[in-house]
Structures are given as C-alpha cells and as structure tokens.
Amino acid sequence: MTSARPYLYLAPTLAVLAAFTYFPLARLAELSLHAPGIGTSLGPWIGFSAYSTLFANPLFWRVAGQTLLYVFASVPIAMAVALALALLLDQPLRGVGVFRVLYYTPVVMPTVAVAALALWMFNANGGIIDYLLHAIGIGPVPWLVDGAWALPTLMIVAVWKNVGYYMIIYLAGLQSLPRAVLDAARLDGARPIARFFTITLPLLRPTTFFLAVVALIGSFQVFDFVNLMTQGGPSNATNVLVYFAYQNGFEYVQLGMAAAISLVMFAMVLMILGALAWAFNR
Amino acid sequence: MIRRCASYAVLVAGLIPLLLPFYWMALTSLKPKREVFTAVPQWWPAHPAWDNYRSAWVAEPFAGFFFNSIVVTASIVALQLALASLAAFALSRFEFRGRSLIFWIIVAALIVPVQITFIANFMTLAHLGLLNTYAALVAPYAASAFGTFLLRQAFAAVPRQLEDAARLDGCSGLAFLWHVLLPLSRPTVLAFALVAVVTHWNDYFWPLIVTNNNAVRTLPIGLGMFVGQEVTTDWNLLMAASIFVSAPMLLLFFLMQRYFVQSQLRTGIRG
Asked: Mutate which of B119, B152, B178, B262 to disrupt the A interface (most A C-beta within 10 Å)?
C-alpha cells in the first residue's frame, strides 16, 4: 500500500528544484526565443534568431574556445597533480594527516580572497612572483596584462584552489581499493611504476570518472576569478561562457541573448558528459 | 627508506607553492604602507601594523556584511538539512510508486548549476519583487540535491530490524527520523553541514546577481567591491580584509578537519 507520506516528505525538495532548477531551463528557452519585452515580460516570438546571431558572432566562438581550453587544460593538470599527491599521502608516513589537512586548505578559502591575493602576487608592480622568478633569471612575465598569459594565469590560480579537493577524492578512492590485489602485485615483484599503470590506475577508474564529471561541471562554471581579476580582458582574452552570458544579460541588458548563451553552454556540458560516460563505460 | 625520504621531500617541496601565498597574505596585511612596495621584499614585518585590520574593517560596512553572511549561510544550511532529511527519509525508508524516478530527478539537478539558470532565476525573483532581500539569497539553495543524496545513503545503511524495534516502542514516522536516523547518521550530517557552510559563506556568484544594496550584501560581495577599489593601492588593507573574510572558514576547517575529509569519503564513489 502506498501512502501519501513519502510524497509529502519529498514535496519541499521537489518544489525548490522545480522552481529554481528545472523551470528555469524552460524559462531560458522561452526567453531566448522571444524579443526583449518591457521589464520582465516577453516580447514577440522571434524563433531561433538569437541563436543565429550568436553563432554568427566571432566573439562567441572565441569565448567558447577559451572556455574549453580553460576546462581541458586545467582539469587534467589538476587531476594529475592531485593523483600524485594522493599516492604520496596514501603511504603510512608519520605526519601524513598534517599534510592532508594543509593540502586541502585552499579549498575552504573564499574565491574572492584567493582572487585578491592572486592579483597582488601576480601584480606587475611589486608582485612577489615576478620577484622570485627574477631571482632565478626568469621574467618579468606579463601575467594578467598580456592576452596570451592571462588565461593561463587564471588556470594556475584555479589549480591551486582546487587541487586539494581532487586530492581528497583520489585518496578516498585509493583507500577503498582491495588491499589483497595490491599486496599480491607487490609480492610478485612488479615495479612500482608498472604496478601503478597496470593495477592501481585501472582500479581507480570509477574514481577518475566521478572526479572528471565533478571537475568538468565545476570548471565550466568559472566566473569569480574572471570577474574579479580580469573582467574578461585584456580584450576578451579571458572571457568565458558564464561571464559572456553575465555581460550580455546585465551589462548589455540582452536577456534573450544571455539565455541563449546559457543554454548553448548547458548543451555543451551535456555533450561532454555524454562523451565522457561513453569513453569510461566502453 | 629512500622512498620514504623522497616522499617527504616531494611533499615538503609542494608546501612551498601551497603555503607561500598564505604567508604572503598574512605578511602583507601587517605591513605599514611604506613597506608594501620595496625593491627587495621584506620577509618579516619590521613594524607590524595591526591597525590595518581596523582600517580595513571600517573601509566598507563589513560589520553589516558579516551579519548578512551569517544570516544567509545559517538559513541556507538549516533549510537544506531540514529538506534533505525529509526527502532522504522518504527515499530510503518507504516503498512507493516513482521512487527511483524521483531519486534521479533530484540527483540530475547536480548538473544544472545556478551559473546556467541565473538569468531565469534573476527574472523570477525580479518579477516577485524579491531582489535585494534575504529571501532571494536563500530560496534557490533551500534544497540540496547533494545533501539529499548523501543523507539517503546514510539512512539506507540503518538496518530494517532497528526500524521494526523502534516501531514496537511507539517510535515511527518523523519521530523515527528525529530520534534514530539522524543521530545514527551524525557524521554524515555534520560533514554535509560543514561543506554547505563553506560553500555558501564563500559564494560570490549568486549574491552578485541579486543584490546591489549594502543592506543585504554578504561578505564576498563586500570584499569584491573592495578589490575593485583598492587594486594597485592599499594591498595591505585588502589582504587584511581578505583574512577576516576567510578566517571563519579557516578556523572551522582546522577545528573540524576530520569531518571535512570524511564528507569526501562518504560520497559513495568507492571503486
């Protein structure tokens, strides 16, 4: 017998998700298919013309390309560093707990504080990073002022902030691996590097998949560092999709265009997640 | 032995890029203005200027922002815990039509972040006249797909026999949730609450969308405005402000670090 109670318990959660997660997707579609109205009302139906304008705009393609570059460069790098750290921290070393805590610390920092600190450290005028690089004969590097360097600089900041989170997830994965298999490989005399590639890494596949999904979704959302450190500049070199939608919506007051950008980005995320799921479940 | 030494060497070397920024932030926050820009960096504050913290605190209405952050974060976390407990209770301890469909509807929300829906949510709240209110800051986060998922896993692990025994003692329904399920799931509840506190205390994006008035602005927005004004001038004050905005989370983290780590271990992603 089914009573009404479980539905009652689920109702508040479902109502909030409907109102602020699922209904907005439909609302975005509606907005993108209508001309701007007055206030929050809709103008006349314009079909897909917002999308054709968007796809004809070279800036959109540049922004989309930069977003993909940001995601597909920073996520694998951060994951590789995190895995290396997790392997080190999975050993029975004295003081390993202290290292785990320290490496996780940047994760709990507000992005705004990290952005403020990064602006100061990477500053062309008195920044400590250029000073230290100069001491070993490098630089000065035009971190945030040069179009070629600005996006990589944001990636460095993001990797610093996120690597501890990825590290803990890999550590959780490592600690749940069957010890018997790993011990057997060690007794067989397999070399550490061979053991890692033939046993540990394949066994970690579910963790790697989960982490890749979380990291991809998270990295596509990059906005805070862009808004606080570069405002998309210099000359759009760090403009990314969320920032582009924000600009269109709130600076140019083109809500329909902003909605179209958000939905295109959502479609991109879904396609990449689909490809990832396919690649990992093959 | 050699391997152990090498591991330590790598771990310690890694701490340099990790901790140097924290040191530089603290150091700069204590430097008087004339020591901020020096040809050779000063690695120790010769004349620690504690007054920087006071100057930064009053440079913006940070006291009000602090209060707003506490109200908003506490409301969000309380609502998320309440709603997620109820939903997880239903999903873990009841048989009903559409259970797995509803479970997937909730989990799928994880791939639709507010960074995608913000234009629509902004318009909804503007239409309701709720911009620049606590309600606008809290409402979209009142439910948590992640929290529901975590609590469902924890509740499902409580054995059936315990439920039957509790029922014989007259403890069923919400009483069972409150007196048995939640206390038994304490580590998961705590871990989720901590992650939620950090996430929403630090949130910059959504408050930026729905506030443009100091009366409801939160700390990250206040610090963000300070970034916009102070850049290239008073780095010592900006670093001091960054520290007092971050300090509550750093303190919480160092006091409760065991649970932060556990929250990751409990997400059910084991291989």
From this structure: B119
